[in-house]
Design a protein that fits this description.
mainly beta; eight-stranded mixed beta sheet
């Protein structure tokens, strides 16, 4: 598990700060309904879908969320009200 910091952010001056992470650098921490094989919405699409992974950022674990419409998804987490996107 990698511990990310502010120095790992790209595009910090834009509205879409980005953090580049590999799946192996995330913590697998599913919720009880995810372990049971259930999904959050009937279609699998939505504005704030809870993911089973967390990311270690600035000494704290943050839950990852996805926004998914059509065949495109954006993964992100929030720090003090600011969205940070994960690629």
């Amino acid at each position: 598990m990698r511990q990310f910091t502010d120095s790992d952010l790209h595009n910090t001056d834009s509205l879409y700060p980005t953090l580049y992470a590999n799946r192996t650098e995330l913590v697998d921490s599913p919720l009880h309904w995810q372990v049971m094989g259930l999904q959050q919405t009937a279609t699998g699409y939505g504005r704030q879908l809870t993911m089973r992974e967390k990311i270690h950022y600035n000494g704290r674990l943050y839950r990852l969320y996805a926004t998914c419409y059509s065949n495109v998804a954006s993964v992100w987490f929030t720090v003090k009200g600011r969205k940070i996107y994960v690629n």
